[in-house]
């Protein structure tokens, strides 16, 4: 039995740990405030030189490890998470850069599948900050804007991955490809998820123009793994692949999903890869689009290991896929009435979510809690939701880019019947109303779909007490943590 001195020592140790955690969290808040003081990530600068300059001062950390580089319009984060999980199951130490975050900026930079610890995140920022300031000064001398939020975050990720060090980095572009800050790295494998219209003011208003921007991540003699694409986009991507001498693997030709069926908590898949067939795979994610994301990830990992010439171990693929998570992607956070959260933020994203919802959940009475950001095609998104939602609660997140609730509600009333639209300013109040409305239809299978933006999804997860973004072990059953 511990004596008084031992008990006092335990209490003191607990207080020291608590103080250290609070100090680290405060440092992250300061870093985040500094990042937010810069140009936002949706205001991409069409340039690479400033990021290259900082990386050069750091010793080019982005060249210290191979990179699997992802672009596309929808599915990037889910596919990146599946790729990373597959690589980790093969006993590789991984870095992962994804965006945007749901709760904390530290989620964006993950090591071995786990977001960076607060203290480590702040340390990396302090490491790169003097060099960022130096390049900012050079830019000011040329009357150019300083590094943006996303440019600094990208530098931080590359530095963190080199410091770890990682065996491979899985890197998602922030916006586009050709001029995205992440494109200072040369991809060993470039992955293109489905392309559709989004960010048209920055990337162009046709799928051809957007595909041209995204094909900018292809490297000379590299390997390109492509999801099924609109014909116009595929032509652009294939032309760029020929120009760069890249090997190309196309979904539906060189690889793909050969069978799938819904299952409790997800779906069962058979995937034809580049070098082998993988049967009886359980994926704990809903919807056909996630099955295609999984096939894309398997092909990308095959390409990474020897250009797709050798099949992966089916048991390793199975163990990795059954452990995959993708928070905020048709995520069930409450069972009765069912509350589902999805970060869909463009028409193509909304459509695949509605398809998955119809397949995986029997909800005859469905209430939507919807908030949308500016510069998104809100009218089309609401039009897609209208046949599916019995009622809609229009709201907003805390983002300054949120469409004003009254304006979005007016648009919703033009699309829905007047008595089906509810206007609620605060997201927490909107969630309460959504659940109350759904409870009316619970006997018939009532549910709530929270969607419209990543910020709405993230804030709703917090308000509803969803678990942390990454809570699974760093290492799978087929691996041991490297020494």
What would your notes on this structure say?
There is one protein chain. The chain is α/β, with parallel strands linked by helices and 483 residues long. The protein folds into 2 domains: 33-322, Mur-like, catalytic domain (UDP-N-acetylmuramoyl-L-alanine:D-glutamate ligase); 331-463, Protein-Tyrosine Phosphatase, Chain A. The chain has helices at 4-36, 49-57, 76-89, 118-141, 149-163, 200-203, 207-214, 231-244, 288-304, 314-322, 347-360, 378-385, 405-415, 427-440, 454-463; strands spanning 67-71, 94-97, 109-111, 114-115, 168-172, 189-192, 223-226, 247-250, 256-263, 266-272, 277-283, 331-335, 338-341, 365-370, 391-394, 421-423, 446-451. Strands 4-3-2-5-1-6-7-8 form an 8-stranded mixed sheet, sandwiched between helices. Helix 2 packs parallel to helix 5 (149-163), helix 3 (76-89) packs across helix 10 (314-322) and helix 12 (378-385) crosses helix 13 (405-415). It is globular and about 60 Å long.
């Amino acid at each position: 039995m511990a004596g008084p001195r031992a008990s006092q020592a335990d209490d003191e140790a607990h207080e020291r740990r608590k103080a250290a955690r609070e100090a680290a969290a405060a440092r992250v808040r300061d870093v985040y405030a500094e990042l937010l003081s810069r140009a936002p990530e949706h205001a991409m600068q069409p340039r690479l030189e400033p990021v290259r300059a900082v990386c050069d001062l750091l010793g080019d950390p982005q060249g210290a490890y191979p990179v699997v580089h992802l672009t596309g319009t929808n599915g990037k984060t889910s596919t990146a998470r599946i790729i990373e999980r597959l690589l980790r199951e093969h006993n590789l130490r991984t870095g992962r850069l994804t965006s945007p975050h749901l709760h904390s900026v530290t989620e964006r930079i993950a090591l071995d599948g786990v977001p960076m610890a607060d203290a480590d995140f702040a340390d990396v920022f302090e490491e790169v900050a003097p060099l960022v300031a130096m390049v900012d000064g050079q830019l000011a001398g040329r009357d150019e804007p300083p590094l943006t939020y996303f440019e600094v975050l990208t530098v931080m990720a590359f530095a963190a991955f080199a410091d770890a060090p990682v065996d491979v980095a899985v890197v998602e572009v922030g916006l586009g490809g050709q001029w995205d800050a992440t494109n200072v790295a040369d991809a060993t494998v470039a992955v293109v998820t489905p392309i559709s219209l989004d960010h048209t003011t920055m990337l162009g208003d046709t799928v051809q123009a957007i595909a041209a921007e995204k094909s900018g991540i292809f490297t000379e003699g590299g390997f390109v793994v492509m999801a099924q694409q609109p014909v116009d986009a595929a032509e652009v991507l294939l032309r760029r692949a020929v120009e760069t001498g890249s090997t190309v693997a196309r979904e539906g030709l060189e690889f793909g999903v050969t069978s799938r069926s819904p299952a409790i908590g997800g779906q069962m898949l058979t995937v034809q890869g580049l070098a082998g067939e993988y049967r009886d795979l359980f994926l704990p994610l809903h919807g056909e689009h996630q099955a295609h994301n999984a096939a894309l990830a398997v092909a990308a990992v095959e390409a990474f290991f020897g250009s797709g010439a050798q099949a992966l171990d089916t048991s390793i693929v199975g163990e990795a896929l059954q452990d995959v998570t993708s928070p905020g992607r048709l995520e069930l956070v409450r069972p009765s009435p069912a509350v589902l959260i999805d970060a869909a933020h463009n028409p193509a994203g909304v459509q695949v979510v509605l398809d998955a919802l119809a397949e995986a959940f029997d909800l005859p009475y469905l209430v939507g809690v919807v908030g949308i950001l500016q510069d998104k095609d809100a009218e089309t998104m609401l039009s897609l939701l209208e046949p599916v939602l019995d009622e809609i609660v229009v709201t907003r997140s805390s983002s300054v880019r949120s469409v004003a609730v009254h304006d979005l509600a007016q648009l919703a009333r033009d699309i829905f019947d007047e008595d089906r639209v509810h206007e609620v300013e605060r997201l927490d109040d909107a969630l309460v109303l959504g659940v109350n409305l759904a409870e009316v239809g619970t006997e018939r299978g009532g549910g709530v779909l929270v969607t419209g933006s990543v910020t709405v999804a993230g804030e709703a997860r917090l308000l509803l007490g969803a678990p942390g973004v990454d809570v699974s072990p760093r290492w799978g059953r087929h691996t041991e943590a490297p020494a």
